[in-house]
Every structure is written in C-alpha cells, then in structure tokens.
Amino acid sequence: MIYIQILINSILLGGIYACIAVGFSLVWGVMNILNILHGTFLMLGGYITFWLFKLYGVDPFLSLPISAIVMFAAGYAIQRGLINKIVRAPMFMSLILTFGLQMIVVRLAIYFFTGDFRTVQPSYASFSISFYGLIIPFIRVAIFSLGVILTGLLFWFMAKTRTGRAIRATRMDLDSAQLMGVNIGNIYAITYGLGAAVAATAGSLVSVGFAISPVSDLEFLSKAFIICTIGGLGNISGALAGGLILGLVENFGALYLGPGLQNAVGYVVLILVLFIRPTGLLGRKGFE
Amino acid sequence: MTTAPDSGLNLLEVRDLKGGYNEVQILWGIELEVKSGEILAIVGSNGVGKTTFLRMLSGVLPCQSGTITFEGEALDGIGPDGVVARGISHVPEGRRLFASMSVEENLLMGAYVRNLTDQELSVDLDRVYGFFPQLAERRGQLAGSMSGGEQQMCAIGRGLMARPKLLLIDELSLGLAPRLVEELCGFVKQINEEGVAIILVEQDVLTAFELASRAYVFESGRVVMAGSTDELLENPEVKNAYLGI
Ligand SMILES: Nc1ncnc2c1ncn2[C@@H]1O[C@H](COP(=O)(O)OP(=O)(O)OP(=O)(O)O)[C@@H](O)[C@H]1O
Ligand SMILES: [Mg+2]
C-alpha cells in the first residue's frame, strides 16, 4: 500500500514539476538562453498569489491569471529591453546578464517581503479524499491538474497558433523566418514572456501546497534544470517525462535513503542520464 | 549601360544601391528596374553579389546608400515584415524550408504577415495547391523529408502565400535534375501569367534566358550588361563567358 501511496504522491508532484520546468525549456530551446531568472519568476508568481490572498483574500486559484499576465509583461519587457541586445552573443553573456538580474530581484524581494517562508492556506487546504487507506490531498490534486492543463495549453499554443508557429519557425531557421516577415525581436520577447508567465503560474500553484521564500528561486531553477536535462531540452513532452521521473525518484529516494538524501538522488539520475543519453530521454535538437 | 527608366511602368526601381556585410562592401551601385508583370533574370558567376542584392531588396540586409522604390514608394526603413506586406516575397537560395514543420505549416508561414482568418487562409492554400497538386498530396508531410524538387515547389508556394506582386526566386534550378527544372519553369511561367512579376536569379543562364524577357549580368557587385534576353543571347561576351560557346 505504501508503494501505491508513494506512486500517487510522485505523479502528483511530477505534474507540478513538469510545469515548473517547461518555461525554462522553451526559452532555452528557442533562444539558446540559459535563463537564471527562471526560478525568480516562479518565486514572484508565488508572492503575487500570497499577497493577493493575504491582503485582499483573493482565492489562490483565482490569482493564477494575474500572475501570468503580470509576469508575461515583465518577461516581455526584460527580453525586449535587455536580453535581445546580447542574444547573438555567446550563451555565456545571457547567463551573466540573467544572473545579475536574478541577484537584484532576489535582494529586492528579501528587502520587501523579508526572508520568511510563506505559504497560502485557504480554508479548504486540509481537505482530502481517502479510500482503501490511501490519502489524496485535494490541494495536491488541484495543483497537479492545473499544472498539467497549463503545460497542455502551452503545447496547444505552440502547435496550433500563428504566433506559436512563428516561434517554432524562428527556432528552426531564423533567417528564413525573417524573410517571411517575422519580427524576430518581438517573437523572442513573446517567447520569453511566455516562459515567465508559465513559470509564474507554476509558482502561484506551488505557493499553495508548499512554502516559499525569496531564495526558493534557486531551488526552482535547479529543479527545472534537472528536469529539462533528464527529459530532453526544448520539448514539452520532455518536460513532462522529466517531471514525472524526478517526482518518482525523489519520493522513492526518500523512502529508501531517507529524506536527507532525497534531493541528491535527482542529481545522480541527472548524471546517469547524461552519461547514457546526453540529449535527454526524449531529447531532440531545438524546440519542436 | 542601363537605359533611363520610363517611370510609371516600373514596379521596382533600384538606384545606385551600395552595401555589403559589415566592413566588406559587395554591391557597388546597382541600377535596375522591374516592369509590371515581367520575368527578369539576374545572372553572374559565383560570389558576385546576386543573393546579397535580393537580401537587400527584402530588407534583411541594410543598404549603405541608394534607393529602392516599389510601386512609386521608397522601401527604406520598413523592415523585412514591411517589405513582405507591401508585396515582395523571397524564395531563398537553398529553399530554406522549416524542415520539421509540415508542408502546410510552411505554406502558412508564408502568409504570416497577412494575419488572415482560417477561411481566408484555406482559399489561399487551395490556390497554391492548384499550382502545385503534388504539394496537396503531401500537405501533412514534414517538409524536410521531401525531395529537392518538391521542396522547391513548397518554397515557391510559401512565397506565393504572401500574395506578392513581385516574387524573388534565388537559384530555382540549384541541385535539381533537368526534368524537374523544366517542370518548375512551367510553374514559374504559370505564376507569372497570373500577373506576378518575377526576379529570377540563376546560375544556369540558358534556363534563365528562356524564361525571362530581360536580364542583368552581374560582375563583382556591378551590373555589367543589361538588355532583352534575345539580344544578350547574341552577345559575343555573354556567349563566351556564360554559355561556353
Ligand atoms: N553573411 C556574409 N558575411 C560576409 N560575407 C558574405 C556573406 N554572405 C556572402 N558574403 C560574400 O559576399 C559575396 C557575394 O555573395 P553572394 O552570396 O551575394 O553571391 P552570389 O552572387 O549569390 O553567389 P552564388 O552564385 O554562389 O549564390 C561573396 O564574396 C561572399 O563571400
Ligand atoms: Mg547566391
């Protein structure tokens, strides 16, 4: 029974992991940017939800679109105003730039929000369904479902819309996309904005079931990095697979090795995957 | 060299166009015009600046100086998206399809700047499938998995999806078997008969001259000869340098 319980927990966790990673994967796959700000967007999304709940009593699930819209705008502006200037430079430049921005934002967040851990506790936080001795917390199921829906929405957007198609075209052949009249600066900014919006929404979801603080961003970032590398960078199904695998590995790792080593197991799997299949399990080149 | 333009009839006028890549100047004052509804050929050896010239027309490469006028209005500073929207589309050298997209998605990318409804799009898709029935059969196939000839059809079809008044085709025949080239030439004629003017850049001078009514010969970034293709075919210099006769 305990195995089934852990399996359920793993899947529920994996869904939210996928959604934590998918924006990172998008930005890396399309623009070749190693986006250190990714975890910061998650953290900020979490705080948007937290403050709206705390100050105005807004239900955390209702604040998801607000997180998405605010952080889309922020992401769009950052890419258009800053990252686009160096996007042709080696990847190292984008790493330094986003790292610098990350430090500024996190310091500001500590200053304004304090370093305390916060979590959103709506009245229904403790509801759960139990049957045959299995316990399924309502909140976890809600977070899982919304995470999967969000990932699915991104998938649909990339596959079916005019802008999604332009993003893929730009990824495949920048020059040719430009000849079609695609404004590359704008498409890059939209891509980065989308990455930020999905990250922020994931952060909002995380703030309901888990505790966050301004420095949680690095934990989110490292999760995203592991998940993308395991699953294969630059495609949405890779993020889903990577998220589920990490969820399983962490939970079963905690069972056998104790909770202290839970996080280390993820890195071990990462290194194993890199040895066996450097492109990741579902990896292809580029975001398709 | 070139005769003075009889303005009004010209769809495109290029005057004293100079430019290149960073510090390297490639084009040294190109003068050229395209009349409405004509097929114009640009020929010349490797590396003389034909592709560079087309890329400047499309606005993906900035010019140092000179003017480009399309339908009486300057094309300065409107960007590649502006150029496509005004009615010039570019079928690039090497086709440059979006390899992991389907044929249909490639065609849709051609109509990107027009921002059409699905219904309008399907009308235009049908028009392109009308020109190239082979593409209709392969609409769901990945563009990168098709043969060279089919890819060239797809690249031309993608260009047509912008509803251009002027279509730039860079190296129509490159790497294709003679039978396919002949077939493609038929398509180009058909497209032209619908009123689309065409600039055809070609290595294969005979093929180009067969299709085009006029031609320009480029040499190291300059126009060294221009005229009707019939005249040029009789020209001893052309015969010697480009036709190997
Ligand atoms: N991206 C670039 N950066 C620097 N120089 C370039 C670039 N592309 C082309 N060139 C140079 O510009 C010159 C003209 O090249 P271009 O491609 O316009 O020639 P072309 O007439 O189209 O030749 P081909 O028949 O081989 O296609 C060449 O000397 C080439 O080396
Ligand atoms: Mg060329």
Any overview of this molecule?
The complex is a heterodimer of chains A (288) and B (245). By secondary structure, chain A is mostly helical. Chain A has 11 helices and 2 strands; from the N terminus they run H-H-H-H-E-E-H-H-H-H-H-H-H. Helices cover 74% and strands 3% of the residues of chain A. Chain A has a two-stranded antiparallel sheet. In chain A, helix 1 (2-31) packs antiparallel against helix 10 (236-257). By secondary structure, chain B is α/β, with parallel strands linked by helices. Helices cover 38% and strands 27% of the residues of chain B. Chain B has helices at 50-57, 79-86, 103-110, 118-131, 133-137, 148-160, 178-193, 205-211, 229-234, 236-243; strands at residues 10-21, 24-35, 39-43, 65-70, 73-74, 88-91, 166-170, 197-202, 214-219, 222-228. In chain B, helix 3 runs parallel beside helix 6 (148-160). Mean pLDDT of chain B is 92; it is low at 1-5. The A-B interface holds A 162, 165-166, 168-169, 172-173, 175-183, 286, 288 and B 58, 60, 79-85, 89-90, 92, 96-101, 105, 108-110, 112-113, 115, 158, 162. Bound molecules: adenosine-5'-triphosphate and magnesium ion. Residues 21, 24, 26, 44, 46-52, 93, 203 of chain B line the site of adenosine-5'-triphosphate (ATP).
